[in-house]
Design a protein that fits this description.
single chain; 488 residues; alpha/beta; Rossmann fold; L-amino peptidase D-ALA esterase/amidase; 2 domains; 8-stranded mixed β-sheet; binds adenosine-5'-triphosphate
Amino acid sequence: MLEINGLTGGYGDKNIVRDVSFTVKKGSILGILGPNGSGKSTLMKLISGVLRAEGGEVRIGGTSIADFSAKELAKKMAVLPQLHTHAFSHTVRETVSLGRYPHQGGWFSSWSEKDEYAVMEAMRLMDINHYEQTQIDRMSGGEQQRVFVAQALAQDAGILLLDEPTNHLDINHQKELLDTIKKQAIEKELTIVSIFHDINLASMYCDQLLLLDRGQVVRIGEPHEVVREQDIRAVYHTRVSNHPHPELPKPQITLLPGVKNASAIALIRAEEFQISKEMVLYQSPIPLKTVSSAVVNAGSGWFRNFMNRHVDAFYNVDDSVQEMTDYIAGNELKTTDTVGMMTAVQTQDVIVKEYEGLFGSIVIAVTAGVGNGVDVSKAVERTLRVGTINTWILVNGILSDEAFIQAMITATEAKTKALQQEQVKDPLTGTIATGTSTDSCLVAATQQGEKLPYAGPITELGKLIGVGVFECTVEALKLYELAKVKSL
Ligand SMILES: Nc1ncnc2c1ncn2[C@@H]1O[C@H](COP(=O)(O)OP(=O)(O)OP(=O)(O)O)[C@@H](O)[C@H]1O
């Protein structure tokens, strides 16, 4: 265990780092974050003993580092400094072998099997064994960085201090290096302290983070306690937005640029919908922020094209996402810029209406096929048949995350109410259907104009969505019934 208590120090009589305390347990990684000049490297130098502390102390396993000889300390603690200056050129193997110096007995001590193993293993872990005889001054910055990390690993110390280990590395090598370090931390129970400039990488790989500002700790804790918009903004003086990692419970941040491309002022209009027997298509002049349960590009994103495609009632392919993606591409639309839904309903029976509110307007589009109506409260295993209610809500306004979710809830409630009014039944249970088994919903917004933080039924936006989705669904259901009668 590494314990830092009230560590204070700097250069000459100037204390750069003041009163820093934390502990790092075996097998875990602590990441140090902070803007340029905040004292990260100085803190590392104080921890490694390169700089003498003016106050406080560093303890390893309960013993102060002041009580270790330089060699003893080097066996316990390996350091990857920020800048590597080498007076003369070594080969990769020689450079990595320098990591073994604390384990050498004296001038005439021989190179042991253990030394050889440690060097070979470190080179293997950093994937540099094929460069073994290369002069490091002939290597790229990223390759050199991996050699120096290998040198630190070859030292076989329980504590690793790393100053920006991913410096110069491409994204794959960043991942490979941090995966290796994390694996080493867990398997060999290493204690690791590392400086990071990349807050997202630090959040992903570290168990604890320490945010430093002007030499003092602003916050320390698990990544979710430290990677917070307000703290990052206050310390780095830049606007950021926080969002979840897609696979890990580790928060990520995105920079919000101070300068944006001038974007055309866009207004979504019902009359701009292109309706044919093949599809309903809306093409926006600007990307719309979208949340949907579509077939292609479901989830959240920014898209310009919105397609509701008519498919045969017996449409049945193994990979409908791929088939739909190919269909979008076949229609000369970019698959990365298009949200695609499907319906067995005649797309010419779509109801598209515009609703004006105090804040601006929304456009609602509904196709409704209820041959597969389901009473959700009595949902049972069913054979899946296409026949679905697709509801689009396109908003001329700026929606918050809450508003996107509330818009979906409000729209779903309005749809269910429409089914109730039209007495649409679940054919299996004979009770009123609440939807169909494959309904889709899409909410998209220009993110221009008025800020709309909420979309519940009590808000202006929610009222329009409620009335609009109800009316459009009722009308779409009537057209569906008509089409059914006509086809008999
Ligand atoms: N050798 C030195 N002598 C005097 N002052 C120094 C020395 N090294 C660094 N400093 C000063 O200490 C302060 C902190 O520097 P430090 O290198 O610790 O910051 P850092 O957080 O690691 O920055 P960066 O992100 O730019 O690497 C800076 O103001 C710097 O000018």
